[in-house]
Amino acid sequence: MPAPIRLRELIRTIRTARTQAEEREMIQKECAAIRSSFREEDNTYRCRNVAKLLYMHMLGYPAHFGQLECLKLIASQKFTDKRIGYLGAMLLLDERQDVHLLMTNCIKNDLNHSTQYVQGLALCTLGCMGSSEMCRDLAGEVEKLLKTSNSYLRKKAALCAVHVIRKVPELMEMFLPATKNLLNEKNHGVLHTSVVLLTEMCERSPDMLAHFRKNEKLVPQLVRILKNLIMSGYSPEHDVSGISDPFLQVRILRLLRILGRNDDDSSEAMNDILAQVATNTETSKNVGNAILYETVLTIMDIKSESGLRVLAINILGRFLLNNDKNIRYVALTSLLKTVQTDHNAVQRHRSTIVDCLKDLDVSIKRRAMELSFALVNGNNVRGMMKELLYFLDSCEPEFKADCASGIFLAAEKYAPSKRWHIDTIMRVLTTAGSYVRDDAVPNLIQLITNSVEMHAYTVQRLYKAILGDYSQQPLVQVASWCIGEYGDLLVSGQCEEEEPIQVTEDEVLDILESVLISNMSASVTRGYALTAIMKLSTRFTCTVNRIKKVVSIYGSSIDVELQQRAVEYNALFKKYDHMRPALLERMPVMEKVTTNGPTDIVQTNGETEPAVLETKPPPSGLQPASQANDLLDLLGGSDITPVIPTAPTSKPASAGGELLDLLGDLNLTGSPISAPAPQIAQPPFLLDGLSSQPLFNDIAAGIPSITAYNKNGLKIDFTFERSNTNPSVTVITIQASNSTELDMTDFVFQAAVPKTFQLQLLSPSSSVIPAFNSGTITQVIKVLNPQKQQLRMRIKLTYNHKGSAMQDLAEVNNFPPQSWQ
């Protein structure tokens, strides 16, 4: 059989192939020849054939049939055969194949070979692809070589020990004695691999970490080595761009970071050397920047001095001025991690960070945006928002959603005034309205609702913002909602913050009708517009007939949502016109409730018990009209805890007769109420669930009324009714009157009863109690008392009077016996 071609000739031949198919044909032909040679047990050219096979493997062609040939080469006594055999084993074998176990004995023999280069081949192979079984069998030989005086073998043995520890962590203690003298070696290769081994041991075992900190005094040794590196003169063997062995410096800094983390003594011992590295390292070359970056990470991760941390942040600030984009990106990422702990130091580089928003690289731009939002505070919010709004206006579409959300959050947290807050949000909606997230619209509506003094200004600004431009759907939705709520303020021209505009009722309706018919309007936007038109029927006086006509037109819309709204609003005009002003009255102040009121709720055995109530009044103007989730356990004590420990979702009060269960599920005890409260049970129209009929038709008269509360001009009377269908249910109608000279607004009545009772609270007729007893608020309470126990109740009253928020608690224990017996 002729001698096979050499590897160099094969490479030259393959490179002449013009197509992939031609190359594939050459490879297949050569593979066939190699297989024939393997079958004939040709020892002469086995090394050459395996080398060619490895080249084909590197090109991506299958070469698994050469695995056993690699083992034969390893068993050979020739160094050239062993070299190719071990290389083939590292490339073609791994621990998932049982064939690799056949190598164990050969590797053990070679680890004890008289030639250091053969020992080095065995160490490299074991450290590359040794399985846990091989590592257990050969760890002893590796440990012996780690103690040898030959630096060539020690550095390879150290790296092999790293692989052994990763595969079999319990063998870590075997290498502990050998590590004592590793750092005294002058050979940089041994030092480098020793630091890698020590790092692996410290990361994998807290016990080892503590041992090296206390017993081995590892930190002073590392400090000494690092100091020698930065203070030594020029060394041709280790110099890289004027810096002595930067690879070893980086490894030592990483190990110092692990040793100094959460350890005061170790951190103190390395503060000085870190300062020297930070000040003496040359920054003109990338090598120096790599060392400085590792130094910064180490300073930030250990318990370093404040001055050292400022120095580290200043280094990152210099990185931001570097022309290399990778260095700028690294600096921004690192500053983003440290901004929470060293906020003031990072603030000094704010202008440089903001300049990075103009960078052409999208990765740098995103990091700069995230860091800019992290730097916003009450002192710089105006300037930072100006820069971020400019960025929002010019950035790519993929940034707009995140940028808009960040501006919303920052403005909500640090807004210097309500007007600035509203102007900023409106600017965002005008600039990037189509990209804002879904929660932007309700959040802005809530902000506008709570800013009572800004209603006229806001509705005027929004009206002008959408004139002729309906492309920004969230902006149009907010504008429609505000026009519907505060259209009367827009027409009356009551704006004091800027020059009022003259708008007629017909012009306002023209805008809303244009939104309805615009091709750019989404279904949700049209719903906002139609509801706004309906609300204006109670705010405008001259255009009610036009509103009725618009609403009736959309009763046959192909949009099911719009059609349903229009049909329901038509029903409101025709059947329930007497209720329309109450149903469409202005929305009360809304607020994000972050706590459950003035008590501290404590969970005990699945029930809620309150701490002592503080009676100091809440801040003025912060009470929402309905605080269902602000109901507390008003009846302390072990025998009168509420039935349900959680509060239901808050809903604004309305005249729609909604059922408001303030204490949870009324059927919790298994005693159903025979006469359920009226509720909307999917009628043909939404408003068909409303009824002016009495809740209970079978009434037993003769129960005397009582005065439950009479203080500060506010009087609460209770009248009682009993149902014949279920005698356990008592219906209490409260009547609240006001004898003072000013109205009481935002009135909220809440009640709680002992846990043996169950309670339902219906919505009140209004939230304003007129002055001089000229009117009353009525509200219905239903109490289920299956055990016929004496009725007791604690009530909580919240309202605004004479510009201040009022809150009071009272107990009612004088219920007439007829109401509960």
Class from helix and strand fractions: alpha+beta
Main sheet makeup: 6 strands, antiparallel
Distance between the termini: 116 Å
Q: How much strand?
A: 5-15%
Mean pLDDT: 81
Strand arrangement, largest sheet?
5-10-11-8-7-6
- Described by the principal axes of the CA atoms, the overall outline is elongated
Number of helices: 31
Instruction: Please give the number of β-strands.
Output: 13
Keywords: Coated pit, Cytoplasm, Cytoplasmic vesicle, Golgi apparatus, Membrane, Protein transport, Transport
Pfam families: Adaptin_N (PF01602), Alpha_adaptinC2 (PF02883)
Protein name: AP-1 complex subunit gamma
Domain GAE: 701-816
Task: List strands and helices in order, with pairings.
Elements: H1 7-15, H2 20-39, H3 46-58, H4 67-75, H5 79-92, H6 104-111, H7 116-129, H8 132-146, H9 151-167, H10 188-204, H11 206-214, H12 218-231, E1 239-240, E2 243-244, H13 246-260, H14 264-280, H15 286-301, H16 306-319, H17 325-338, H18 343-347, H19 350-355, H20 362-375, H21 381-394, H22 397-414, H23 418-432, H24 440-450, H25 455-465, H26 473-492, H27 505-517, H28 523-536, H29 544-553, H30 560-574, H31 580-583, E3 601-604, E4 607-610, E5 659-660, E6 706-711, E7 714-722, E8 729-738, E9 745-752, E10 758-762, E11 776-784, E12 793-801, E13 804-812
Antiparallel strand pairs: 1-2, 3-4, 5-10, 6-7, 7-8, 8-11, 9-12, 10-11, 12-13
Question: What do these coordinates show?
Answer:
- The protein is an alpha+beta fold and 821 residues long.
- Helix content is 49%, strand content 10%.
- It is built from 31 helices and 13 strands.
- It has a six-stranded antiparallel sheet with strand order 5-10-11-8-7-6, with no helix packed on it. A three-stranded antiparallel sheet has the order 9-12-13, with no helix packed on it.
- Strand 12 (793-801) and strand 13 form a beta hairpin.
- The chain is elongated.
- The model is unreliable at 594-700 (pLDDT under 50).
